[in-house]
Amino acid sequence: MKHAAEMLSELGLSSVDQLFEDVPREVRTNGLRLPRGMSEAEVLRHVRSMMAQNLCADDHPCFLGAGIYNHFVPSAVRTIVSRSEFITSYTPYQPEVSQGMLQALFEYQSYIAELTGLDAVNSSNYDASTALGEAASMCMRLNERKRFLVPEAMSWERKSVLRNYAAGPGIEVVEYSYDPYTGELDLEDLRSKATPGTSGIYVEVPNFLGVIDSHAPMLKQEFPDVALVVGANPVSLGALKAPGDYGADICIGEGQPLGMPMSFGGPLLGLFACRQEHVRKMPGRVIGMTRDAEGEKAYCMTLQTREQHIRRSKATSNICTNEALMAVAAAAYLSILGKEGLETLAKVNMARALKLQKLIGQLEEFDSPAFDAYHFNEFAVRTPVRPEKINKLLIKKGIIGGLPLHGHIRQLEDHMLLCATELTSDEDMERLVEALREVQ
Amino acid sequence: MYRQAKHDRRLIMEKDGSSDFDVPFSDDLQGLEDFAPAGMLRESLDLPSLPEREVVKHYVNLSQMNFSVDNGLYPLGSCTMKFNPKYADVLASLPTVAGLHPYQDEDSVQGALRLLHDLELALCEVSGMDAVTLQPAAGAHGEFTGMLLAKAYHAKSQEPRTQVVVPDSAHGTNPSSAAMAGFEVIEIPSGEDGCVDLEALRAAVGERTAALMITNPNTLGIFESQIREIAKVVHEAGALLYYDGANLNAVMGRTSPGAMDFDIVHFNLHKTFATPHGGGGPGAGPVGVRERLVPFLPVPRIVQREGRYRLDYDRPDSIGTVRSFYGNFAVLVRAYSYILRKGADGLQEASERAVLNSNYLKRRLAPSYPAKYKELRKHEFVVSCKRLKEERGVRALDVGKRLLDYGYHAPTIYFPALVEEALMIEPTETETRETLDQFAEAMLRIAGEDPELVRSAPHNASVRRVDEVFAAKEAILSYRAFKRRAAKSSPKG
Ligand SMILES: Cc1ncc(COP(=O)(O)O)c(C=O)c1O
Prior knowledge:
Oligomer: heterodimer
CATH class of the largest domain in chain B: Alpha Beta
CATH architecture of the largest domain in chain A: 3-Layer(aba) Sandwich
Shape of chain B: globular
Radius of gyration of chain A: 25 Å
Helix content of chain A: 25-40%
Shape of chain A: globular
Number of helices of chain A: 13
Largest sheet of chain B: 7 strands, mixed
Structural class of chain A: alpha/beta
Bound molecules: pyridoxal-5'-phosphate
CATH class of the largest domain in chain A: Alpha Beta
Helix content of chain B: 25-40%
């Protein structure tokens, strides 16, 4: 280490060991049992060749969705989020030298506010699942009740994460069922479960089965004193009504479709928006508009008295490091698409999925779609053999198949969820259909 | 002196143009005459429309109004703002990394699973733990996971325990995470030496204690030399010892949480393992545990048999999952690459240099910025501006703001609360002696500068001192809210 000896001698020390004299002998370790370091060139080669064993969506048609989507990411988004100044900074604790990040995050919050129709947005949660967990706690803070209703048709992960977040505050999570013909929520069942102690109702639009639920716009009238939490796919909001416009108190969602690669499921972006009147009960970091000492417009983190570093065990959330760079990606992405871009993208996604749905529907042994409803960019099909088996066969043909549903919703054996986006070409669809023909 | 850029401050929503983005297949909208249930169609969407050229200009100019590690020294204590090597970014953006869907069949992601498995093993070695989960998205999320594990562990042994003990010097996420997991938080005062007070600890732990959460070195940068006694007190009470890994950068290869008898550990890969902080995130907060806690770890576990990797969900005692999927994969790829590059010796040297830099800088600052408690520190230290405040009316906040004028990020201020007018300084191992000397000179100079100049700093940043009180009072979090507010306060309504 260059200068080490001189620096040590200025401290009156003669060896590095003396810097660790305060570590008692009985807890000392003798180095690490790890391989020796590699040169940069070796590291690049090593990891590249390891990753070459993966099948990736850039090279193979991919029909998976279920919360994470293979959308086109404009090159400029990568350029923007690769800027040293954004990627190597941290939480903007010093607003005067962090106006760039602060303004980008304020713009992100503004975009999500517009999409969701809710004025207050935080600057990110870890992902949609943890955002849902935090939303359930926030509902309890809003009305001091402890029963939280969620759809049975929801991913296994979201249910599990929610249970973990709900356990601490003692929130009871109750599932309501779906209509086996339409895939929409079962209103009778929901009514029977929305007993007086109910704090919040969570509904996904589109839901886990890809269905755009026709009940969504009337839920607030139906349950006026229960907090309504909507889980939305932000791309769908280019064409679908803003949850705030049909009474949502909180809107959460997975922000990954807004310009982030799938990256094997992380990092993601937990969207979190709520009505302005609830703002002091919300979790997470928020960026506010303000002014500097000379009265010029400026931005800073605000409402920090809700947060862990001040409120400690009474904070609204423990979140500290969040997903800020992903929020910048979302802002850059929405800026590039613009109004027409997002509207068109939402419609193209529906059109692509509809096309695929019909193509598969022509295969005799497949029931496509399995549910009779409006869908966004994915839909369930009933398959003649186990979906896992189909997927193994598809991999051999270089196709990444759909999601077997029974791991999430037990009774949906022999059901597969298939997704199409603007990246799914006609040729991709034909390849899939050809391959499925062999399954019959 | 440093001078930060200052560009057009209009929001992107206030700019005008027309988008040149093309959506593939936008000419094929067959069958979409009617695509959503009644009442579900969007009525308005108020987004700007700009060509790519304007968008790139906007965000590149914003980036120039943002100080980062790549710009200069960022001695933000507790955050380990070390240099983020660029090969890691290259690897994280490979199509074979970025283009993987988390629900792909295991056969099609063998490389990814192997990387995760190998990273788990490397983290076991660094921490002295028996198993690691990579799921948590950040340090605080790791703490929350650790608290769920502690709860599950005690529940299994029919000993429901309801309290978690934390020292008053703990980071705010510790008590917050424990409370979120449903524990009652007991704070204990630190001793005269800034360390855990064994008497206070003994008085606080008992049969209701589930865990003690501490970090070592502690938030003052002092190594808790009585760590074995602490562990003994905790374990004799039947409780678990939790290690907040935010300060792991001080000790790699020299000691480990395992050697210190901790039971649960979280790592902050965005600190110790050099992954970029992303302006606030994403990070990664893996959790390591000792054998007896392994059954409770989140599913899926990554298992290897005969060279084939699999995701195992069949763990009856598991707490389930704490987020969707397997962790912040792109961050994990970076940390793995960093570990490969550094190797055993490189990681240990990183810690040694971090500790050397910290003690050296502490010595250089001593004439104007005294640090209470003992001499030797680990990777960071806390000085007090109490004397400056009394003698010149200059507070820690002001010193931090003035440093911005010199082209340095400010240290962490007012944490831990044990030290009056605290500046918490962590130079990290990636800074040269020259940089440390220059920073020290700036700090010493500030101590002698015209107090008014310091109190009114910064002068060279994009904006002058920001009014945080006004922001909290107004709570304007979006352009929508801003427009609504403006409409309300204008006389025409
Ligand atoms: C001592 C300490 N503990 C915990 C945390 C929380 O980690 P994270 O921000 O990754 O959630 C921090 C982060 O700043 C910290 O400094």
